[in-house]
Amino acid sequence: MEYMSAREAADKWGISQRRVAVLCSENRIVNATMVGNMWIIPTTAEKPVDARSVRYSKSDNKKVKPFLKWAGGKGQLLYEIEKYYPFADGKITKYAEPFVGGGAVLFDILSKYDLEDVYISDINAELINTYRIIRDDIDELVALLSVMQNEFVTMDTEHRKNYYMAKRERFNDLKVNSNESVNIEKAALMIFLNKTCFNGLFRVNKKGLFNVPMGSYRNPMICDEENLRAVSEKLQNVKIVYGDYRESADFIDSDTFVYFDPPYRPITDTASFTAYTENLFNDEEQIELAGFVDDMHKKGAKIVISNSDPKNSNTEDDFFDNIYSSHKIKRVEATRMINCNSEARGKIKELLISNF
After folding, report:
1. Is 22 in contact with 29 (CB distance < 8 Å)?
2. Across all residues in the chain, what is the average pLDDT?
3. Residue 177 burial by Cβ neighbours in a 10 Å radius (0-12, 13-18, 19+)
4. C-beta of residue 99 within 8 angstroms of C-beta of residue 218
């Protein structure tokens, strides 16, 4: 009989290594064996059904919230997006979010429903690493963040600036030169910088280096342990993928609700902030995404896409009306919360596009 490690089983089944170990210790994986201090599992073993939840049921209503402030986060639009949730009749049992970002919709769904399978992905490697570390190494992460919080909040402004710049330099060094052995530290730095930088932005330059200055927070919550542990619990059965949205194709089927929240198309010539990663998302890529949406629609998936409304600045701009002409387009009011120009924050229209 051939065997695989707990880590290999975790990757195969899209759950955490810790969850695999728990399933082994509960004798829920046939012929799983402890060798030394590690579990080995038959390669033919199948992922056990999660006995912690009832299929398609409402969750335990334990609320979790995004652990990062994220430009373009959908917290303010949840009341509109949740109107599309198709889980009530029990026919949709899976959820996919291929541009997960801060995960406002993800955590809202995880707080409300126990689904059979959940898939998230993003091309921001540091973001995905942080999701994985919260899922798999929460104790070590909380310990590091607690130290950073205790050190940072007791400092005066000048010492805070020096501390912040040192952490930013360390993060960029790990971002460029690191290996998996420092992933926990890198995740802790990601959260620290997000909680202490200007406006909670994640922005990189053309070299891929994080370049946001320190913000002016009196007492930032760097280690929100209660929420981080709740998030870790909710992520245990979530498949977390670093990669392009196209990789979700194998996961998506007629049982899946998919929410696409790509980098927004700029609505003015100067509103071109898309540098959450070194990669940009231009009109050609928006058109390619629309084609991918059509392909997933043919599979029978329920789909919602959000984006900016170009008609905010040009009433004759029908870009999204044209590329999503076969779908339903709803214009909803939103508020820009993150903008370096305070006068540019305010009410605008955004698009919610659906195939149902």
Report:
1. no
2. 89
3. exposed
4. no
